[in-house]
Amino acid sequence: MRVTPWFVPLAVVVAAAAGVGGARLFTAPSYVRAYAAAAAHPGTGTRDPVTSHFVVAGLRCVDTARTMAGLLDEVPGVIRCECFASRNEARVTFDPGVTTPATLKEAIEGPVYDSTSFRFEYGLYRVLRMDGRDVANGAEG
Amino acid sequence: MPRVSRSPVKFVRAALQWGTVGACLVVGIRYARGASLTSVERYCPFGGLETLGALITKRSFSCATGETNLALFLALVALTVVSRKAFCGWVCPVGTLSEAIRAIQNRLQWFRPPWTMSGPADQALRWVRLPILAIILYFTYKTGELVFRGYDPYYILFSAHGHDVKAWSYGILAGILILTAVVPMGWCRYLCPLGGALWPLSRAGILRIRRDGATCTDCGRCDRSCPQSIPVSRERDVVSGECTLCLECIEACPSKSVLALSTPGGFRA
């Protein structure tokens, strides 16, 4: 059966739209860390864990996700961090009786120790959005 | 004097190709300037293939790849099953630039290679893509990093000197462009790992160019117009895994009825 040549560009456009739009069907993290500190700081035990969503500039791959998650190591009350590098997003689950999203933001934006140069590096990560709110310019935090 | 015509379909193909190049440039420059968090890597379907192993075994994406890469790759697989390597001929920005180099050479009569790669040598060299693909997939899976990013012409061209692009990356890009000038579509035909991955799927593609041998005058214009150097005039059905359904052969044919896009059942002219 003859097919109109217009079928080819139509198929290309449909495939591109399905590819970009279909991304919503898949969700998998690039990096996940569960924190031992959460067990050491059991918290108040009176409130359920809460998950905060952060959009973080600098979170772009598994390596940067691992480093960023490491910044939360010493924050009491942090239970779990899931990083989605392609979306620059981190979901941090914590005990609200022990810590707050603002504390987490501060920790994420904190200095990172570079073991090769033996120096602290500043400004590697910047929280742009926190739980849907724009916090890029220090408007909130 | 070559026939000069510009069919609406050809115009749409050029618009899609150059629209993609423009979109990639905008995304790359915005990311490099800090105006956006979206890198050009996000729209590379090959990233979906690279991360497939990690996703199946580790339930996580590799390096900077993510949902969009995977969804684009799956859509590309579906497109290839239907329309062969239409992605390469209608969307891929590296393919567009390769075609542009070929067009400039033809237009200016400047360094047009006197040879055409075809026959057994051409067929043998096309297999080179498969070990390249295997090496990239293996090391990406083992390290969890996009370790070949600095060698990727798409990333070097459109990331605006992105992460992992070093001085030698531009040397590699220059080498690829020189190869493309010396061997038309050299990167696509012999080195592109995504092209290698799509090859078997494309060969089984549903749509094909069908030639009506009874009315064909064997003028050979279709052969000369094919960017992939497929000998269209010697085929009844063009079922080559390299066909991008660019429709250049149909455009070049002096008869309206000899070549047509067709399903496997075909048509009788």
Gist?
The complex is a heterodimer of chains A (about 140) and B (about 270). Chain A has about 140 residues and is an alpha+beta fold. In chain A, about 25% of the residues lie in helices and about 25% in strands.
Distance between the termini of chain B: 29 Å
Query: What is the percentage of strand-forming residues of chain B?
Result: under 5%
Oligomer: heterodimer
Helical proportion of chain A?
A: 25-40%
Explain the overall architecture.
The complex is a heterodimer of chains A (141) and B (269). Helix content of chain A is 26%, strand content 27%. Chain A has a 6-stranded antiparallel beta sheet. The radius of gyration of chain A is 20 Å and the shape is elongated. Chain A contains 4 helices and 8 strands. Chain A is α+β, with helices and mostly antiparallel strands and 141 residues long. Chain B has 13 helices and 3 strands, in the order αααααααααααβαβαβ. Chain B has helices spanning 8-32, 45-58, 67-83, 86-90, 93-108, 119-126, 129-143, 153-158, 167-182, 186-191, 193-203, 221-225, 248-252, and strands at 208-211, 237-238, 259-262. Helices cover 55% and strands 4% of the residues of chain B. Chain B has 269 residues and is mostly helical. In chain B, strands 2-1-3 form a 3-stranded antiparallel beta sheet, with no helix packed on it.
